[in-house]
Design goal:
Layout: H1 11-18, H2 21-33, E1 35-37, H3 38-49, H4 60-77, E2 81-83, E3 89-92, H5 100-109
Helix pairs in contact: 2-3, 2-5, 3-4
Organism: Natrinema halophilum
InterPro entries: DUF7344 (IPR055768)
Pfam families: DUF7344
């Protein structure tokens, strides 16, 4: 379900989006770079967050599948990101400003 671009995100929606570690990592990465690709996000998540990408469950294929079929479409539906599909670009969307203060706070809190 797509929301109008002018609609502000409800606080419960923001908290739901941030409740998942993968989505938090995606949002933090986009806060830092504003534009990337799905492939680069998979590499980022498997290299920096997962540590050991050799596990069948947490490997790049599993991460890519979850990104492509769940996390990125969910964020795109809310206009938090603009998602160009599995081979396209991922960029901050018009509603990113609704999560930006929370993401910035998360980044400052990291050691």
């Amino acid at each position: 379900m797509s929301h109008p671009k002018s609609e502000r995100l409800e606080i419960d929606t923001v908290y739901t989006l941030l409740s998942n570690a993968t989505r938090r990592a995606v949002l933090c990465r986009l806060h830092a770079v504003e534009r990337t690709t799905t492939r680069e996000l998979v590499r980022y998540l498997t290299d920096s967050e997962r540590g050991d990408a050799s596990s069948d469950i947490d490997g790049p294929g599993w991460v890519a599948s979850r990104l492509i079929h769940d996390h990125l479409p969910r964020l795109d539906d809310l206009d938090v990101i603009d998602y160009g599909g599995p081979d396209g670009e991922v960029a901050v969307g018009p509603a990113f400003d609704g999560v930006e203060p929370f993401v910035a706070r998360l980044e400052r809190a990291e050691p």
